[in-house]
Amino acid sequence: MFLRDDDSPARRVEKLTRIADVLVERIDRLEESRGSAWSMFQAAVALEQEVQVRTRELEQALADLSERNRELAVARASAEEANRSKTRFLRAASHDLLQPLSAAKLFLSALKDTELDELQRELTGRLTGAFESVEELMHAVLDISRLDSQRIEFQRKPVDLGDLFRRLAVEYAPMAEAKGLRLSFAPTTVLVESDPTFLRRIAQNLVSNAIKYTDRGGVLVGVRQRGERAWLEIYDTGIGIAAADRARIFDEFQRIGREGGAPGMGLGLSIVRRACAKLGHSIAMDSEPGRGTVFRVNLPLAGARDEPARPESACGGPSLRGRVAVVVENDDAMRRALQLLLQDGLGMAVRVAGGIAEALAQMGDEPPDVVIADYNLDNGDTGLQAIAALRAQAGRAVPAIVVSARRAPELGLACQKIGVPVLEKPVAPQDMQAMLQRMLA
């Protein structure tokens, strides 16, 4: 390719032309390469600027999100505080509301035991029904408030379904008889694991609901075991539930099936759903319009007794006549109502007191057979303190009952530690009688 001395001029021109073409080609490639690198550099600069813009936008979005999160946290804290305030208000108001209601029910019970003419019996019956409606509504509102609280604590323990059935039979027999219905409870010795208070509320609402929506036939309550689980089942021969209504029957204030609905506020099944969800008990339902409904609650087994428990009822237990009771109650009306129930209704000898000091003075030489104390007494005293003081003076653990409108878990735990049952206000006379008979048997 290089020039030689012996090359002819034409040969020299050819070689120089080739060399020039190669140089030109190389220069073109170099220029192309330089152009591509410049373009890449420009693209990199533009991309870096775009990244900086997007980074600033992302930082602003994160800042906005952080601010929204702070606002959300403040709003959530405010909502939780409002919910706690509502719960505290309901707890505080419940005692003041249930106190006169409980006294009124006991006075009505005492009035029913006297000689009344036809009009007076009708008025007494209507008053009793009105008070029961108010009581049902208050219990429903308080139950929903407790179940909606995030701080609710359950006292899970073995629950004797046989004992629960006997209590429900006594409680709902009058309601079923008034409608001409058969109310049956299948005998059982099954023990399940649950919160006894809320399991009873679940069963109460289901049985009450079954009776309300049944016009003829009856209601059957029983237990069916499946492996390590048990189904609490409530059958009725009522109006049934249409398929279109089954999704909403567990909502608040729903009364379906016929014109005017059934008596009540439509809150029972809402409480059942909430309680079952909190306790982890699944609930199922089968229904056929015009033929009846069955509700099933799935419960974990806690074991079963070998021997069935002896049936007890409010009218078949031991006599309470002549037994001595000390009543510690700071409300005058409630104190008088309890005195009438125990003294005139059950034939007990009753000593009443408004506080701990007066109760100690009422003890006398012989300790009483039972102490009945309201939880909230004057001057910050409690029924548990009254029971402890009376037991100390008696020198033995006198049987005792706490009567309270409070439904706080800590109250149940405190009473459980000293072996004292709690009777919720409004006090039903048959519940008080049944509890006294069990304690003093």
UniProtKB/TrEMBL annotation:
Keywords attached to this entry: Coiled coil, Kinase, Phosphoprotein, Transferase
Domain Histidine kinase: 92-303
Entry EC no(s): 2.7.13.3
Protein name from the UniProt record: histidine kinase
Enzymatic reactions: ATP + protein L-histidine = ADP + protein N-phospho-L-histidine
Modification type 4-aspartylphosphate: residues: 374
Keyword Membrane included in the entry's annotation: no
Pfam family, one: HisKA
UniProt-recorded Gene Ontology molecular function terms: histidine phosphotransfer kinase activity; phosphorelay sensor kinase activity
A GO cellular component entry from the record: plasma membrane
Organism in which the protein naturally occurs: Paracoccus thiocyanatus
Coiled-coil zones: 13-82
Domain Response regulatory: 324-440
Record-linked InterPro entries: CheY-like_superfamily, HATPase_C_sf, HATPase_dom, His_kinase_dom, HisK_dim/P_dom, HisK_dim/P_sf, Sig_transdc_His_kin-like_C, Sig_transdc_resp-reg_receiver
